[in-house]
Design brief:
single chain, 210 residues, alpha/beta, Rossmann fold, 7 helices, methyltransferase, Methyltransferase family protein
Length: 210
């Protein structure tokens, strides 16, 4: 079985209880970080009809924050997570094109999106550099990628602890806690516009451009 399919099966398995597993985290700082992320997205909207992609919609936790008057696409490679996202789109009465798609092989034209958003996605993409290169490909020249991501700490002790315990989250639901996401961004050829540390140097809000 390919790595993609293994991770997809793990997310399919936990989809019905995924929100419950992360409830405490959402009621803590994560909920605030998520709202701030979408406020930053709102600030980037300067014309009607802009296209936005949420790459890795998961169970749809961001859907309630989607801005109005945008053409919004949201993708995930787990069909059962997409089922949960569809319920939230109906609950919050949001117009969104929900599509089963692999972030590493996007079925969109080059230079298609004005804005791309990810939140806690690149911990689970099997080939994160390939996924980031795909986001770069479909992003317009003047577009922006706004990310809320967790990654390996630069602190020697904390980083080693994350390496040692990575297998727990990886084999439970397919997420890595020790990804070197800033390095991966640079390898993908994307340019860092802004980085804000939200929890030590582990959780960051990041803005990128081509």
């Amino acid at each position: 079985m390919s790595k993609n399919n293994k991770i997809k099966k793990r997310y399919d398995r936990i989809a019905p209880v995924y929100d419950s597993l992360e409830l405490l985290m959402e009621k803590g700082k994560m909920g605030d970080w998520r709202q701030n992320l979408w406020q930053k997205v709102e600030d980037k909207i300067d014309k009607a009809g802009m296209r936005l992609l949420e790459a890795g919609v998961g169970s749809g936790k961001n859907i309630e924050y989607y801005p109005e008057d945008l053409e919004i696409y949201a993708i995930d490679f787990s069909p059962k997570m997409l089922n949960q996202a569809e319920k939230k789109a109906k609950k919050y009465n949001k117009e969104v094109n929900l599509l089963e798609m692999d972030i590493q092989n996007l079925d969109f034209e080059d230079d298609y999106f004005d804005l791309i958003v990810t939140s806690c996605v690149f911990c689970s993409v099997p080939d994160p550099v390939k996924g980031l290169k795909e986001l770069k490909r479909v992003l317009k020249k003047e577009g922006r990628i706004i990310m809320l991501e967790h990654m390996r700490s630069q602190n020697e002790f904390v980083g080693k602890m994350m390496d040692w315990f990575n297998w727990v989250s990886l084999y439970t639901w397919g997420a890595n806690i020790n990804r070197k996401t800033i390095e991966n961004i640079e390898k993908a050829g994307l340019e860092l516009v802004e980085i804000n540390d939200l929890m030590s140097d582990i959780v960051k809000e990041i803005e990128l451009k081509k």
